[in-house]
What does this fold into?
Amino acid sequence: MKKDTLLIHGGVMGDKATGAVSVPIYQVSTFAQDGAGKHRGYEYARTGNPTRDALERLIADLESGSHGLAFASGMAAMSTVLALYSQGDHLVMGDDVYGGTYRVLHKVFSRLGITHTAVDTSDPAQVEKAIQPNTKAILVETPTNPLLKVTDLSAIAKISKAKNLHFIVDNTFMTPYWQNPLTLGADIVVHSATKYLGGHSDVVSGLVVVNSEELAEQLYFLQNSIGAVLGPHDSWLLMRGIKTLGLRMKQHEQSARRIAEWLADHPKVQKVFYPGLSTHPGHLIAAEQANGFGGMISFEVQDGEVAEKVLRSTKYFVLAESLGAVESLISLPAKMTHASIPAERRQELGITDGLIRISVGVEDVEDLIEDLSQALSSHS
Ligand SMILES: *Cc1c(COP(=O)(O)O)cnc(C)c1O
It folds into this structure.
């Protein structure tokens, strides 16, 4: 089945009992048993709910995995995955992973004796060098946020296999429509489904996919034990969003390419970060391991003052955190998503005060370019 068909026919189609074409919302917490301990597949809705089940099967199909799991947020998904590790274990992770992932490792799991080393994963040699005898996993995002750095997933998978580590990929930016890390050798895929998968700025959710019975069993145990599950209504909203993922991703991508090229030619723009541009250092790797480049662009203007003026002047680009929605969004990483990183460290990483990040929505691209054009010239 091709991707666009899988989005519609993957997972569970409708409801067998009634013929309903959409999976019903089973708004229920417990299920009647035919005898003590004799249930019909469901007993208590933290353990399993038919609507969440349908979503979990759908995301497994979309990521070419065997098992999917749905959580109350991307961070709930990530934290449950990290609960696989124990005191004394060590992780190697990207030095510009999502701020929440960094925070939970740095402030929560480190208290429990799980340590980590952050490196630039776009350089596999750095990853290899950071591995210690007690390393248990490598955690990567590609492309990263906000600098859109690309990591070679097959290269990291090779390193990870040789050392018998788990290879975890946060695939939020690419979505399963463009990139399937499990097919490139990853062991665990994590999503903030709040972003592109949901796509409509109306649901917070997280997903995990694996391709191994053993990992699935461990993660189902943790999902049920920790209990950060996604509710039935949100599960349904997510399935509804996913039906149009292909249509949306194609539009995000087409418009993002146009806008990235336009920005690259703009006299007030000093630098553009978009893996789809042939000048991007990760362009060839991105082209090889993914079927698209996504809808996220970062670009640099003169300084923080100019950047803030641009942010205040757009009318279609909404000034907000988050990404991946039908609405175009604009943000200033240094003052928003990455404000908690010390200024010096931000400079080292290349997150300058004049760095603007946009999530290209599905509005008419001519309107979006006109909007950026007037915002960039409104203060000359
Ligand atoms: C937003 C995000 C998360 C966290 O997801 P929530 O749904 O906000 O908990 C994790 N990883 C990436 C790459 C994200 O963009």
